[in-house]
Amino acid sequence: MASLRPPATPASFAAAAADVRAVEFRSDFTVREIPAPQGLAPESLALAGDVRPEEHGVDSPYGTGRLILLHDPEQPAAWNGAWRIVCFAQAPLEPDIGIDPLLTDVAWAWLVDALDSRHAAHDAASGTATKTLSKGFGSLADEGDGAQIELRASWSPRGPIGPHVEAWAELVCMLAGLPPGSEGIEVLGTRRTARD
Fold first, then answer.
1. Would you say which domain of life the source belongs to (predicted)?
2. Does pTM surpass 0.85?
3. 20 to 30 A Cα–Cα from 131, which one of 27, 64, 110, 190?
């Protein structure tokens, strides 16, 4: 992936957004720009990413994510600066993986590790990791049991923005069963059903 180097000091949002758009992603992770939510900050940019999507613009049955880059020159106190990143990642799992009591801790650790491995300095990190177990009944009984992991997080980036975007992409792929260096390898540990 390309290493982006916007200035560590506050830069114009247009320059940071151009750098985010220039990030190169692994070939089995499709990323597109989507409309950013309004009202979160004066300036924002949003990305959607899908692991091996079957159709362009449709959430992947393997794993999907969203990332929003926010900029507020007023520097909200909770952000500890003018920049904030908000991300979301989710993936279906096999039910036996979904019942692992450490699954949520592992999901959070993968995000922290992805940020650390890219030297993506940050502070004021917060988030939730949620696992969901499901069972089909009635006309959905044939679909059997299912599980899903979902992580929502935010942090204030320090320095270049590109490594933070790369860390988010790695997180989505890890949740989908694709660790770094696994391009072209079959996705393991996921369950594809009509509910996913």
1. Bacteria
2. no
3. 27
